[in-house]
Amino acid sequence: MEGEAAAAAEALLSAAQAHLAARRLSAAEELYSRFIARCGGPAGGTAPPGAGRDLATALNNRGQIKYLRVEFAAAVEDYTAAIECQPGFEVPYYNRGLVLYRLGCFDEAMKDFRKVLELNPQFEDAALSLKQAVLDKEEKQKRGY
């Protein structure tokens, strides 16, 4: 029975990723939500053995869908849940940092970008985003905002 549950969860995740790749965002979000619920994410359930990285990926990807819909608070919640699930996974830190940057929360964004670079020093987009956040924070301070 345990093998069947793991196979069903894997099929949900695979289908969700296929819908995301095809830009069928509503279908992808619904499947990610079902996978997250099944794996014991924020909606409940019991995670199958070894589901940590898959659960973090599902949360991150569902966060991306919310980000694309400009649902920033909901996206940040999913990214944060992904980080809590898999603290060594750099992508949700980067994605959360991007949202925080867009919201003008430069200190929090820079913290996330630095964490990305701590986990993966070769993550070029994080290095560029960190530099831009520093520059924009300095500009904001110069203007007295």
Description:
- The chain has helices at 2-21, 25-38, 52-68, 72-85, 90-102, 106-119, 124-142, and strands at residues 39-41, 44-45.
- It has 145 residues and is mainly alpha-helical.
- The chain has a two-stranded antiparallel sheet with strand order 1-2.
Task: Draw up the topology in text.
Layout: H1 2-21, H2 25-38, E1 39-41, E2 44-45, H3 52-68, H4 72-85, H5 90-102, H6 106-119, H7 124-142
Antiparallel strand pairs: 1-2
Q: What is the terminal separation in angstroms?
A: 59 Å
What is the strand tally? 2
Write out the strand line-up for the largest beta sheet, numbering strands in chain order: 1-2
The major β-sheet equals: 2 strands, antiparallel
Which stretches of 5+ consecutive residues score pLDDT under 50? 44-49
How many separate helices?
7
- Average pLDDT, rounded to a whole number, is 91
Task: Describe the structure concisely for a colleague.
The protein is mostly helical.
Quickly list its features.
mainly alpha, 145 residues
